[in-house]
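Give me the 3D structure for Zn(2)-C6 fungal-type domain-containing protein.
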Amino acid sequence: MPRRKAADRVGPVKTRSRGGCKECRASRVRCDGLKPSCTRCKERGLTCSTELVLKWESEFTSRGLAFGRAGVWNKSRGTGDTQSGQSSRSSDSSSLADREWCFFPAIESWGFVNSGVSTFEQSGQPNISWDQLDTLVVHSPVFQRVEIEPFPALSPTLPLFPNLSQPQQQYLLDYYLDQVCPRTTASSTTSSPFASVILPFCLSASPTLFQAIQALGACHWSRSNPEYATLALKFKWQAIRGLRQRLSNAGSMSHLQDPEILVIMMMLCLYEIVDNCDQRWTVHLQGAKDLIRFKRQQQLLPSGATDATDAVSIFAERFFAFQDVMGRTACAKEKLFENDYWRENKGKIDLWMGCSPELVSLLSSITDLSRTRRQLTTDSDRAAFSLRAASLGRELENLVQETDSDADKSLWSAAELKRLAAVLYLHSALYGASPTTPLVVGYVRRILRIVSDLLESGSLASMTWPLFVAAVELDPVHDEVWGGMNGEDVVHGRPLILRALAAMADSSVSNIARSRAVIVKVWQARDNDMLKGSPVDTSGDPTSCNDWEWYIVPLSDAMSLA
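Predicted structure for Zn(2)-C6 fungal-type domain-containing protein (562 residues):
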């Protein structure tokens, strides 16, 4: 009997069951899909299971079978037209060269900004464990650390330090001088004060200071060679024990005015920043504040006055004060050190800070003013706030920072980066500007342009704070920062920032892993709020939380951005 045509059939059209059990599908029988067991399996006493069965194309190919329906059946040729199928496949192969393929971007080890369960479980905490850049950085020739053989012979200068009796100790001092100190300044012509000021002072120093220096050198080295982590902990413990004995000495309190104590605390502070950059480095910051205050009370000198001949004390005190100012820009906490540290040589760029003391003073004033913004209750208070904010803005715009050498372009670029970032920070913290504000977009592009130039030249010191400010204020919708015209390649902000952070992880003494973790967390928060709407009040209410206070401040406690 001939088969009926589709138009002559009566009754409901039988369709293939997509929810059938494994037994019915294997027997090519329609399954009624009843639960927990279909009718057919129940009648035959079979195990009714609807688990998915994965099929692998490689397995079918090895057995000489077609995978699915590819090349086996179609409505025009039937099931046996293998010659036509082969012709079709050869035709498809010949047309591959004529196809236009989409561009696939290069994937680097530093380029992943993933979201996981912890992103939502710990929404208020950066996930630093994902962002340990020290294990991800591939050392390029521009940023390659100069390798030296383990335990070299003594150089002619080392016998000047009788406290270094073992080759291992001498070698760690070499590493501090050759690898750590150059990474503390953006200057290409002048030695870092961590060498030029601290090294002569070490000629008469106690073993405790050398232990602190060796701990810092071993800790920094452990970022690329984990074998030095244990040695770093050993020297750190010895230095802390020696410092504790000095501070608890039951004699005259005059020994607390010895600048060596501050230098030991400075090295231990840097150790904690390089190691984990958590609350432990702020313990040394608080201790230094108390010690400096005690010294000034004992000297019966006005606040801010120090012995002009004591270059070591001046450098150590400014180190802690600078750490306080730069860290407060992110977390907006109350200051520990007053602004009197920035009165001398106001316009001259400091080698370690990478900017002028006047700029640091302005940053401190901006942070202090931002802390009062949500406490303004009267119109007169708001008017005074606006006048002060405008005055700080004019000072930043007109600020001139000078260098000792006109040829030191890297140091000047680092100082200009900080000035541009300070203007961006002022508008974000005081005026409530956001990544979509035209002024913010312009300053982010200017900062990233300089960062790109410094990245190509290999000069990456003193870039942590300006890069952080530009990164957290980058517009997620318009990530293209420049290019696309006259044949110029398009440069996207996030890949550029990640590339710079990866390079800085090997070329600075800052804890880049912590900075990157906070930046990534801000990016994830902004991306998430693009879908559900921004929680920041844009009505201009001075008592409401602005963009900087909402996205950056809660994540930035105990950050070192100096």
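The chain is about 50% helix and 0% strand. Let me know if you want a second pass.
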